[in-house]
Amino acid sequence: MLEEFKQSLQLDPDNVEVYLELGRVYREKNLYSLAIEEFNKAGQNPSYSQEAQLELGRTYQKLGNSDLALKELKLAMDSNPSDVRVHLEISRVCRKNKDYDSAIRELKEVVELNPLDSELHFELGRTYREKEDYNLALKEFKRAIKLDPNNAEMRLELGRIYREKENYALASEELRQAVALGLDSAALHFELGRMHVGQNEFSLSLDEFNKALEMDPDNCELHFELGKIHRRDNNYSLALQKLKKAQELGLDTEHLHLELGRTYREMDERSLALEEFKKVLNLAPDSREVHLELGRTYREQNNCALALEELTQAFKLGLDTAVLHFELGRTYLEMEDYSAAKEKFEKALVLDPGNIQIQA
């Protein structure tokens, strides 16, 4: 195809359409500098400058250069303020930068003019989902599917929202519908796996995550989810292998370090566990879960004063679970404050009366 375009340009060097198509082909092949060169050539023709600016914006976005992408897209917007494609691309750049309000503003502007465009409702739904406004995301995805009921990707997104809302029956229905419509992607198997995790069906989730991994072996989130499952199965060597692979692939979140810390603690590597939990505090100082884990680890190291401090902080931050009160009870027991220990164990039993460990 490249040779055909080059031959066309030799015959007609002023054919701007060919420059644009050649740039798109280069971009698909990740040859971004060559793509930019072709789009710049096309942009020299005033009649095609807006199209060239749009393509340059898309290319810079692929390169991860949001500033240049927005610069070109805003030039394209100045040339044609009603071009839906430009609003859509600007919203995508904003969403990637986690500037969700700006992305939503761009999309709403064109949705008002194009209320029957399913793609716009789909993009608006994705933006709300990433903003964790699941009710509005659900509303937009339903609108998108009503307009395009056989779109498997939209079914996938709707299933993802239902999973986030812990409505696993509806999540399963939408994800199975996506399968029936022919979707067979890493993203689909990943969502099926997460749905099974939510239902404590870990063997099924493992199958789905492994299918996804075959399709997308460098997905850090997949390695992270597999690491969590292996820890639950007490397979700590595999858990560490997967969690460290996720880290190697660029994942550096409080959830990753929390999971690494839990894995090390369960392996009785408490010093390493504390290192990971402290990394969580640097990323999310108000994480209730990490204060609980720190308290648990300090108690296991017989440092009850620090344990009590961390567990109390978890409670102050709003954690009020049977596990927390049980840990407080064990800490008070080791400090020989039997009255406080009894109070906390009783509180834990009220919150989780069927817990045999607490009853013992």
Task: Describe the protein.
The protein has helices spanning 2-11, 16-28, 32-43, 49-63, 66-79, 84-96, 100-113, 118-130, 134-147, 152-164, 168-180, 186-198, 202-215, 220-232, 236-248, 254-266, 270-283, 288-300, 304-316, 322-334, 338-351, 356-359. The model has no long low-confidence stretch (mean pLDDT 93). It is an all-alpha fold and 360 residues long. The protein is built from 22 helices and no strands. The N and C termini lie far apart (73 Å).
Number of alpha- plus pi-helical segments: 22
Find the structural class using helix and strand composition. mainly alpha
Secondary-structure element order, N to C: HHHHHHHHHHHHHHHHHHHHHH
pLDDT under 50 segments (min length 5)? none
Helix content: over 70%
Rg over alpha carbons: 26 Å
- Beta-strand fraction estimate: under 5%
What's the mean pLDDT score?
93
* Largest sheet properties: none
Termini Cα gap = 73 Å
Tertiary shape: elongated
How many runs of DSSP E, i.e. beta strands? 0
